[in-house]
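Ticket #4471: complex job returned nothing on first submit. Input attached below:
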Amino acid sequence: MDSVTSRLLEGMLEDIRMSLTTIAHAGQMLGENGHATHVLATETAQSLQLLDSFSMAAQHKFGQQQLELEPVALGAVAQGAIQELWPFAEASGVSLELSIDGSFSPVMAHAAGLQLAVQHMGKALLEQAHEGDHLVVGVHRTPGGIATGVFTEQEVIGLSARSLRRGIAVIGQAKTPFASFTARAGSGLFVADSLLKSMHTKLRIGHHQRGWGFATTMQASSQLALL
Amino acid sequence: MGKLVLLVESDRKQAGIYKDFLIAKGYDVKVAYSADAAIEAADSRAPDAVILEIQLPEHNGIEFLYELRSYSDWHAIPVIVYSMIPPERFKIPPDDWADYGVRDYLCKPRSTLQDLDQALLRVCRP
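Support reply: We reran it on our side without changes. The output follows.
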């Protein structure tokens, strides 16, 4: 992307962010009752988070540049993500659970970017979830490192490594690249993958206890473990 | 007469929303659309609290904070930063907020009007 387009994009993102914030707060003045005001709140919040993620990913050339890394506690990331996902889950009648299987050394990551990525994983599963479903925001050890992600025990048709990679490859070219589990463009998953690539990892399909879902795997820093 | 909140906000649509909200909560509200206007307003009647957007035309909110702190009469005025700029991009580190009277920092896209109300109640009841 040339510099003029990049600057225009940043400017547009800011203008849209401002408008959505104004809409969200105006909606809150309409009162707290009613499905419509709740939808207004959750849709604007979702759009704002997507803009934040997109802006961060775009600034780092969608995975081609590294984000600034620091020691990050994955439990804190999972906790932060679940707090942000709560309003969306509540609106859908879906329950959330935090599940941290063990104690883990910090990993080198970008805390805000990683949390946004996990949030997008959660929102992708929430889009296909039904009332009464249960999602788990989990952290657990795998042979490849420490996995963090969002998982469901409910069947998600089309949730596979192949459909994920294919969907990410056709973002912008197909109207619904993840058609098997979302009617939307699924840009959140693409942005999550970009953010994770800027941290030398990626979005993948994983499992946690009895559930399957989206996850990413990172290595604990052996040096940090000694501190 | 309720407690006076000085709302420093350059976006008129947002200013209108926040003013209506705060009045409904029992506060008197004075809106200033720029840092210079905010200083003039504070000079005219010292507020009980300030709600401050950092992104302001000409002089930004940080310059306003510097000016606010330069007057000993205004040292005790609590400031709630309510900004489009996220806290991780705020140039004053959290450890120094108290030096500028900043009691809380809310990022508008990430917070609700109720969050603003709660933050204000912690420093200034109507």
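The two ends of chain B are 9 Å apart (CA to CA). Closing as resolved unless it happens again.
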